[in-house]
Amino acid sequence: MLLNENRLFPADENSRGIAKRLFNEVEKLPIISPHGHTDPSWFASNKNFTNATDLLIVPDHYVLRMLVSQGFKLENLGVIGKDINTEKDKRKIWKIFAENYYLFRSTPSRIWMDHTFENLFGINKPLNQKTADFYFDHIGECLKKDEFRPREMYNKFNIEILSTTESALDNLEFHKSIKNSNWNGRIISTYRPDNVIDPDFDNFKENIDKFGEITNEDTTTWTGYLNAHRKRREYFISLGTTASDHGLSTANTADLNNEEASKLFEKVITKIANSHEKELFRAQMLTEMAKMSIEDGLVMQIHPGSHRNHNKNILDIFGRDKGFDIPQRTSYVDVLKPLLSRYGMNSKLNIILFTLDESTYSRELAPLAGAYPSLKLGPAWWFHDSPNGMMRYRELVTETAGFYNTVGFNDDTRAFPSVPARHDVSRRVDCSFLATQVAKHIISEEEAREVAIELAYKLAKVSYKL
Amino acid sequence: MLLNENRLFPADENSRGIAKRLFNEVEKLPIISPHGHTDPSWFASNKNFTNATDLLIVPDHYVLRMLVSQGFKLENLGVIGKDINTEKDKRKIWKIFAENYYLFRSTPSRIWMDHTFENLFGINKPLNQKTADFYFDHIGECLKKDEFRPREMYNKFNIEILSTTESALDNLEFHKSIKNSNWNGRIISTYRPDNVIDPDFDNFKENIDKFGEITNEDTTTWTGYLNAHRKRREYFISLGTTASDHGLSTANTADLNNEEASKLFEKVITKIANSHEKELFRAQMLTEMAKMSIEDGLVMQIHPGSHRNHNKNILDIFGRDKGFDIPQRTSYVDVLKPLLSRYGMNSKLNIILFTLDESTYSRELAPLAGAYPSLKLGPAWWFHDSPNGMMRYRELVTETAGFYNTVGFNDDTRAFPSVPARHDVSRRVDCSFLATQVAKHIISEEEAREVAIELAYKLAKVSYKL
Amino acid sequence: MLLNENRLFPADENSRGIAKRLFNEVEKLPIISPHGHTDPSWFASNKNFTNATDLLIVPDHYVLRMLVSQGFKLENLGVIGKDINTEKDKRKIWKIFAENYYLFRSTPSRIWMDHTFENLFGINKPLNQKTADFYFDHIGECLKKDEFRPREMYNKFNIEILSTTESALDNLEFHKSIKNSNWNGRIISTYRPDNVIDPDFDNFKENIDKFGEITNEDTTTWTGYLNAHRKRREYFISLGTTASDHGLSTANTADLNNEEASKLFEKVITKIANSHEKELFRAQMLTEMAKMSIEDGLVMQIHPGSHRNHNKNILDIFGRDKGFDIPQRTSYVDVLKPLLSRYGMNSKLNIILFTLDESTYSRELAPLAGAYPSLKLGPAWWFHDSPNGMMRYRELVTETAGFYNTVGFNDDTRAFPSVPARHDVSRRVDCSFLATQVAKHIISEEEAREVAIELAYKLAKVSYKL
Question: For a Cys-Cys bond, which of A203, A434, B57, C6 suits A448, CB 3.0-4.6 Å?
């Protein structure tokens, strides 16, 4: 077997026993996936996936980055780039992965993969050079079957709702198509307007123009631009969206008056804004989005702190999301003050904050979320979406913010088969944290059971208004 | 029972057994409370407290902030504010607290409260909606009795000495009255001159004037101003004070010559100083305080790193200390250099450093305290005065600074009944840390016993010269 | 006995049993010591060490700093300084250490010392005031014997290779002498050019002149200066060197073109460079060193983040490395970008990054090393070369970077007898980390065994090209 039933539980017998009992209560609960990056076209078309490599390696930046860090080249791992020969032999790529699977020891990728191999594909021998062909063939065979199509997987995974993420310019055709189909899976989108908010985004000016066209607003004016946001948010909401997402590099906010903001916008769209003004614009837009959230009820997610595309060469050839986004030191206290002074005490505002800088958990985020009614903390994110990362999150956050200023789990995945694996890890780690609290007589086992269900299911549903 | 005798001890049987034996040695030791914010008038007048709400909720910013973070309003929790209707029905407020007591799960507030409920008031059923009235009535009855008056509680809690904190302008009337009474409790003050050092403090100029009046010094001159400090320190010392406390937002220090300092002071009191000059003045004053400490022997506490009153609205309406002080990134290495270059090697100087930025424990504070004879580290502070916070403190500090560059525990409380609860937590966590060291054969159990007593009692007494 | 066979293993029986089995596999493996500061003359002359104090106290800044932090003066601990009377009575110094040995409880110094006392000198009673004379006499007797000479210790310690560190100006006479001797110990040097790269280094200009003389290059020109580096690197390589080391205060890098670099160099050597330009020069030189590493194959170690000589008085009187180097907040992501954009994807480049700022492990270092093929992470360094420090390193690094982007252990020691003690600690902690992974079913015990051997022996050998 690849998976032990006691995996991730505490090592001492006392805590482990409690963790098992708690996990029993949550293991089978439906999955709420309120934030992720799966492709809605999968569920619209429900076409079969093709092979193990294209399903599990090529789209997974966690896997790519580890192999690249050990000297493998993206083109040899099946990634398509400008003016570059990409390996076409999927089996050959799979073999590279299999031979180097030991590199992933003690990383979450290994846990997610083994979970997928055993639970989805029924494999119970370890992946390595010897078993590489068997794996490739077996997974390929499975993927041809109806039961391995996206909608069937969605059902098998016991997903209750799955959120994808689309740009402000997306027409949500796949979401419409799913809604109009006779399938009862619930796939909703998240409003992500970075490409019309961040003046440094590729093709920002063109994006603004397109933003005007699709909303029938004059996006060369501040008022028209804000109206365009309002209309797109409304459109997303009409198709089920309950949240927006903001992935700027900082959490800077501003509180300009209308005249100042209007002038700043003019500079930004006429491209004469300097870098300070561009940052001020992004900062002001977070506050504007908060204001709109109060009006239309969208939950507002703020995901700062990633230095995107650290390697320009990789970006130029292979594009975004290839494993070269690196976390950086991130501030919250000072920079959120303009927004929070303005709207922070308003209970109609629901902001969910994330971080890649774990030093802010106990220093800034838990104290902020433990004071402002408008703030909650998102789960351990990205690099920290891992057993130790999640445990640190609970240990650093809970004593100041409690459990009820957190929002359950986000899988944040691009790799659909890993969805149940990630929720399984999260549930096991939360139950382990709670088991230690029970073993140390900080809370009772009865309380822990109640909290375990909140963390695994209820809090995500409530916090994201699902 | 609300409290298990093994609470907070390690989960594995081996370490837990050791922890229990160590705790046995320290559980009954008298409490040294060298830093806190209880009200000396309680002990001067020895009047009965009135009801559970006014005793346990209204003055406790930990409790208020958690309830506010979940949407409750300060005025509905009994807090008085400008032009605002405050809830007068104490029972109604208590019921809000009781119904929402689950929010505090796994927070230190819950531990302190349960400790108070069971050990002080003899209650052994959990607080919730159903038991709310019983609690309110029972605590109210208790508080009417003589044995629940402040002095009687002080004795019951086995306190040997309790420090309060007063501003440089306080006349210490309550301390005098206690001293002149026939009660033998030892309540001393701490000299906290922030309001005459920080040019940004409310009414700074008026404070300086008053500072001159009560010391009969010309505080419009640098020399007179420094003399005023010397005289007030002397006055505090005459009433038992052994320490000063400095709660500025940074740990910046400066080392100006007399002429520079004198010119700067002139700018500061004539209000023409800019923000850089004001910060320089605060920085210079830390160095001046260090110099006076060498002269008069006061232990000098530095508590930087809180962004006070993050929400201006709350400040304007409800005032300070209502749960909206948020920690921020704090530096020590560079900014303490001017002071340490001047006086850092002087063994007559005793500085105790605190932090709200845990990333500095192993990076800056333990290395500094493990080198300079004038520096010691205060315990895990405020948001980190919690089981995991204390454990992180020991884990991050001990390997570089050892135990003997730390100063035992501070309860730092405003809520008198929580004093014994907080010392109980600290003793349990330190014994747990030591037990793990013994279980891993890093130190012997005999050594651990000696250290446990130092951490629970002796180090505080020696470090604060009590 | 001073040492328990289960020391440092996890407290719970389950994990401890696994840790013991893993440790069994690595305990006796030869020591690879690829980075340290022992004195090559010891091995060249193979003279006996003289007494316990000069062997174990005077050269050990960890020991000195702890005693100084408690009020002892360096001159009374045998350290020689300018215009200062240094204690000559070695026994008296030893007694101070013995009486205050309790200060080191739970610090790594205590572990290393006890290991040396028991394993090297066969002592099995604890050091304290009573046993001080016995220790001093017994160690003194031992040191007179042939078997306690440096080469004999090297063999006894089962060292396979030991690296020292020499400046770019060192003639490596002792390394030559060792090489030409009939002893088969392998002592190699590390190329450390800080004193000809850092314009703020003592006697920088004189160093540059000497650099020119010994390489027969015109080091007043940029080209000549770079050639001098090339020649010295070649010379070091000819005597076995496989790595360079760079201990600047930041990890700043730059990517100037040749003309810019040449102009900057001119400013730097004519001493008209301002502090910004000096920093830019250091930054550019890291990139130049990376370029040379690609050419000549030297592994490049970067050790930033220490605020050297925090106390100027101590520096002026006693010189460097006396315990007053203090870690400071350190950045990697932005500042390494110029170097990494230029050479980061080149697999011929081997950079090993270290830090004293543990907040960067999970935030910056593991993500960078888990993406760039040229980057690996050095082990927990200096203040963090301790049981908890090493454990935090594995916990914070592994989930993102895995095991294979780390490089095994460095002892980094100046105190030769502590070499086996430090490797023992490292092996025990790594086995404990792995045991917990096995106990939690994250990896199999068979995998853990393989990894344990990598961490204890193979990775250091491969990463440093030994």
Answer: A434
A8 lies within 8 A of chain C by CB: yes
Q: Which of A340, A241, A248, A226 is nearest to A292 (CA)?
A: A226
| ipTM score for this prediction | 0.97
Smallest Cα–Cα separation from C57: which of B369, C49, C156? C49
Q: For chain B, what are the domain ranges?
A: 13-47+149-463, 48-148
What topology is assigned to B48-148 in CATH? uronate isomerase, domain 2, chain A (1.10.2020)
Residues of A in contact with C350 (CB under 8 A): none
Gap between the Cα atoms of A128 and C434, Å rounded: 20
The reported pLDDT for the residue numbered B273 is: 95
A326 at C interface, C-beta within 8 A: yes
Q: pLDDT tens for residues C97-113? A: 999 999 999 999 999 99
Mutate to test the interface with A, among B60, B67, B105 (most CBs of A within 10 A): B105
| Superfamily (CATH) of domain A13-47+148-463 | Metal-dependent hydrolases (3.20.20.140)
Q: Tell me if the domain spanning C13-46+148-463 has CATH number 3.50.50.60.
A: no
- What is the residue-level pLDDT of chain A in tens, covering all 466 positions? 899 999 999 999 999 999 999 999 999 999 999 999 999 999 999 999 999 999 999 999 999 999 999 999 999 999 999 999 999 999 999 999 999 999 999 999 999 999 999 999 999 999 999 999 999 999 999 999 999 999 999 999 999 999 999 999 999 999 999 999 999 999 999 999 999 999 999 899 999 999 999 999 999 999 999 999 999 999 999 999 999 999 989 999 999 999 999 999 999 999 899 999 999 999 999 999 999 999 999 999 999 999 999 999 999 999 999 999 999 999 999 999 999 999 999 999 999 999 999 999 999 999 999 999 999 999 999 999 999 999 999 999 999 999 999 999 999 999 999 999 999 999 999 999 999 999 999 999 999 999 999 999 999 999 999 9
Considering CB atoms only, which of A331, A375, A400 is closest to B383? A400
For testing the chain A interface, which of B326, B365, B386 should be mutated: the one with the most A CBs within 10 Å? Answer: B326
Distances (CA, A) of C322 to A368, B367, C39, C313, C328: 41, 13, 17, 11, 17
Sort out which chain B residues have CB atoms less than 8 A from A399's CB and list them. 106-108, 383, 386-389
Q: Does A124 touch chain C (CB under 8 A)?
A: no
- Mutation site for B-interface testing, chosen from C4, C105, C424 by largest number of B Cβ within 10 Å: C105
CATH class of B13-47+149-463: alpha beta
Of C455, C408, C424, which Cα lies nearest the Cα of C163? C408
Tell me the CB-side half-sphere exposure of residue B16, using CA atoms within 13 A. Answer: 17
3-class DSSP state of B307: strand
pTM higher than 0.95, yes or no? yes
Residue C334, Cβ density class (10 Å: 0-12 exposed, 13-18 middle, ≥19 buried): middle
Q: In terms of DSSP bridges, do strands B191-192 and C191-192 run parallel, antiparallel, or are they unpaired?
A: unpaired
On whether the CB atoms of residues C300 and C289 are closer than 8 A, the answer is yes
Among partner residues C344, C399, C440, which is closest to A108 by beta-carbon distance? C399
| Facing A440 at nearest CB: one of B8, B357, B383 | B8
Is CATH 1.10.2020.10 what the domain over A48-147 is classified as, yes or no?
A: yes
Q: How large is the angle between the packed helices B258-269 and B222-238, nearest 10 degrees?
A: 90
With CB atoms and an 8 Å threshold, state whether B386 touches A371.
Answer: no
* Average pLDDT of the residues in B229-247: 98
The answer to whether A228 and A219 have CB atoms below 8 angstroms apart is yes
Q: B30 near B457, Cβ under 8 Å? A: yes
Could you tell me if C216 lies within 8 Å of chain B, comparing CB atoms? no
Strands C31-33 and C159-163: parallel
Phi, psi of A162 (to 5 degrees): -135, 125
